[in-house]
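Researcher: Go.
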Amino acid sequence: MPTRRSPLAMALLSLVCEEPMHAYRMQQLIKERHKDDVVNVAQRNSVYQTIDRLLRDGLIAVRETTRQENRPERTVYEPTELGRQTLRQWMRQMLSTPAREFPEFPAALAFLPVLPPEEVTAALRERITHLEERLAVVDAELTQSRAFLPRLFLVETEYQRAVLQTELDFVRGLVADLEAGRLAWDHLL
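Model: Structure:
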């Protein structure tokens, strides 16, 4: 059975295609490059589980195991030819075919009648504040990064900015509809 594609598997495979490296270095590079905005590496265990899956499926191989002074042993991984081919295939699929994803916010919108309209309005106003703050951070990161990085390395941040702006516009419109009474209901609970 082929390895299940995931953003984390794609990121790790991509990194070892750059150069052979150990798991801790992969996690650190993802964070240093701010790719942890698009790939979840918060749990170190998920990195190791994904590496085990890639190894088991023959997409990466152990290049060497090293130990430096008092440090723990580190296993350095490199891609296999199958891994390189799989990475290219995953990239083509991820770029060309929208995935069916299930984020929390649309799920919450689907069940608005659980709360009274006033509570929904208050929660959405709070969301607007968070979105505005996040948008300001992304704008600052883009401005700073454009000074030294080619656009190629910023396109995912540009995408995130566009999604944030679209969500912010949508939520502001929803709040306006709630406040004007164009959207109302009797809550369930």
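Model: The mean pLDDT is 93.
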